What we know:
By secondary structure, the protein is an alpha/beta fold. The protein is 34% helix and 12% strand. The chain has seven helices and five strands. Strands 3-2-1-4-5 form a five-stranded parallel beta sheet, with helices on both faces. Helix 1 (13-24) links the parallel strand 1 and strand 2. Helix 1 packs across helix 6 (169-178) and helix 6 crosses helix 7. The termini are far apart.
Amino acid sequence: MQQKAVVLYSGGLDSSTCMAMAAAEGFTPYAISFSYGQRHGHELTVAKANAVRLGAAEHLVVDFDLRLMGGSALTAEIDVPKQGVGNDIPVTYVPARNTIFLSFALGWAEVLGAADIYIGVNALDYSGYPDCRPEYIEAYQKMANLATRAGVEGTSRFKIHTPLISMTKAGIIKAGLALGVDYSLTHSCYDPTPTGLSCGECDSCRLRLKGFAEAGLKDPLQYS
């Protein structure tokens, strides 16, 4: 019987690739997504439609509202920047988002009897978010084993897998295609049109398009 792994799944390119990698490494993926009040809710529509199609044994959607705190272009009435990726932490950073997401994933993993959690963070071709760095993941993994019954009793030793963390976006795309990922079933845009077309200008779209271009491939998505 295959071991279970909880995979943080947004419906995007990175998380879809991450789920395929978990399956390729011998795990049965259990996808977890979040309805957290994000303005770009189309990603959740894509996630709900495609999690099982992309290999998840089960798909859990956790609902909470970070708009109550705001502080980000993704959860408040702040314009999504379209000037390209800079050196500062951008306003699309959502305070504590990965910490919150990983906490839900950790709780579900403990209930499922899974010791492995996959998250598609990247510290190379990314927007500069502090909760995508290797030192953050290392610290969270240590905390996970201190803060859970499974960790304290020694029934599980939790591991946070970050297979994309040092890959370029082009490398991620090539790896995903080799594993059969259908990128037409993904969505990356921070500011899509009401019909779900990607803007092509936000940081996430720019990184995605750059990745496909550097891989010598055409992005299967349509852009506005």
